[in-house]
Specification:
Length: 461
């Protein structure tokens, strides 16, 4: 989706941003009519609190938007965005004492708040207000982050009836074509011929053939490879999920959607790197050909895996894709997946947990996350838990019993397929359970903006 800021030369109305501590002095500088209006409407400058200021002709002359207190701002990302949807259509410009970081957050939040998933609605959204880019902000970077995020959200929000492996492939190829990237696709039985047996095993029960999608872009700079889990719907297989557990499973391709959004950001900004994206796209369905509990699969890497839960399928398809990615020894390898409920229990839906053994890479990411308004949290590749993923009858267990440390054991499982030293894995949620500022209920990207912001340090671009 193409987004834009308002023409800087066009007329626009002021959107005054006023913090609680500054409210009295700011209000004293307004006309008697404006002061009376704000008093009558009880404006207290709470974070995201909006008041439209009437013009003499009955229209809207300006607006004032509360910036709250420092303590409240620290508890909310994109807090100003609470008020953006109350603005009438037209062009607006920000005024007020905003730091450069706050101005960039305000601009990014303004764009992200405009997201609407209306594919299945008869009533289309009304025209949206537009914001002039605050002075000193990087328009290209903010637009790229917002447009990449919109792609991720739209893919996650689309139901599996309209986004199976074939449709995800079409979206993937369209993204590649937009930026002139090279692509290849391995489908169905060809996965076995190309030694991608676990991707085939997970997807073979569905009439919608499994496949591996690949994109290559860029001819200069370090090599970055992204791998995203593309389970377009997850029934759980023969270890079937209860109905309540399936309600959000259209989002089980959130890792694929997020790496595609990140890839769009990278290509749109023309970063000097060699990008490779791998997405194993499957539907974990049930039929006579479904993989069974206690089946033993042989992976691309040659490691054998005992399937102790067919609902722990994401790590199986990622394992083959990671082994393929690892064969080229990229400078940095990143996997992203909606992989475990354990990660949600550990950090909730708002944080994106990640794993890496590379300290400089972890430090770069943790420093970049607040800049990008994209929180992350590091979890450990905890060596003592390695024995939990070794079942004895095979090299690896895809679902250790006991229920402890599920996100960590899944990450350790994936690491067995990677020898590239600079590897990072994200166990994301990909969903906002309730409306939040600039993040409506539904699909959401996690970690992509933080990675984008950290890339110059990670790859020394």
């Amino acid at each position: 989706m193409a987004l834009s800021f308002a023409d800087p030369a066009a007329p626009s109305r002021p959107l005054h941003v006023v913090a609680v501590d500054d409210l009295a002095s700011w209000r004293a500088g307004q006309s008697d009519a404006v002061q009376a209006w704000l008093a009558a409407t009880g404006f207290e400058a709470g974070l995201g609190e909006l008041r439209l200021i009437p013009a003499p002709d009955g229209g809207v002359a300006a607006a004032v938007l509360g910036h709250g207190t420092a303590a409240i701002r620290a508890r909310s990302r994109f807090g100003l965005a609470r008020g953006y949807k109350g603005l009438p259509a037209g062009d607006w410009h920000l005024t007020g004492a905003l730091s450069p970081a706050q101005a960039e957050e305000a601009a990014l939040g303004f764009l992200l708040a405009g997201y609407s998933f209306d594919r299945y609605r008869k009533t289309k959204p009304a025209p949206q207000p537009r914001l002039k880019l605050p002075e000193g902000c990087d328009a290209a970077r903010i637009l790229a982050m917002a447009e990449g995020e919109f792609l991720t959200r739209r893919l996650i929000d689309t139901p599996a009836s309209d986004l199976g492996p074939q449709e995800l492939e079409e979206e993937f190829l369209a993204l590649a074509a937009r930026f002139g990237a090279e692509t290849s696709v391995i489908r169905g039985e060809d996965l076995l011929a190309q030694n991608l047996p676990m991707i085939h095993a997970v997807g073979r029960a569905s009439p919608r053939a499994p496949r591996l999608l690949e994109l290559r872009w860029g001819s200069r700079g370090p090599k970055l490879t992204l791998v995203g889990k593309g389970v377009c719907f997850d029934t759980g297989g023969l270890d079937i999920k209860p109905s309540a557990g399936m309600l959000l499973m259209k989002k089980d391709m959130g890792g694929a959607a997020t790496v595609m959004g990140l890839a769009q950001m990278i290509m749109q900004l023309d970063l000097p790197l060699r990008l490779r994206v791998l997405v194993p796209a499957v539907e974990n369905a049930i039929s006579g050909s479904a993989m069974r509990p206690r089946d033993i699969l042989t992976s691309r890497k040659g490691l054998t895996v005992e399937v102790n839960n067919t609902d722990a399928e994401g790590r199986l398809i990622l394992a083959d894709a990671l082994a393929l990615a690892d064969e080229e020894t990229p400078d940095v390898l990143i996997s992203m997946a909606t992989l475990t409920g354990a990660a949600r229990v550990a950090v909730g839906p708002d944080l994106a947990p990640f794993f890496t053994d590379d300290e400089p890479m972890a430090e770069a990411l943790q420093a970049a996350a607040p800049v990008a308004c994209d929180p992350v949290w590091r979890l450990p590749f905890w060596q003592p838990y390695e024995a939990m993923i070794e079942p004895g009858i095979a090299d690896l267990d895809n679902a250790p019993s006991g229920g402890f440390a599920g996100s960590i054991t899944a990450a350790l499982f994936l690491r067995r397929f990677v020898e590239t030293p600079r590897y990072m894995h994200f166990d994301i949620y990909g969903h906002t359970p309730a409306d939040q500022p600039a993040r409506p209920k539904g699909g959401v990207g996690q970690g992509a903006r933080a990675i984008l912001t950290a890339l110059p340090r990670i790859l020394a671009l």
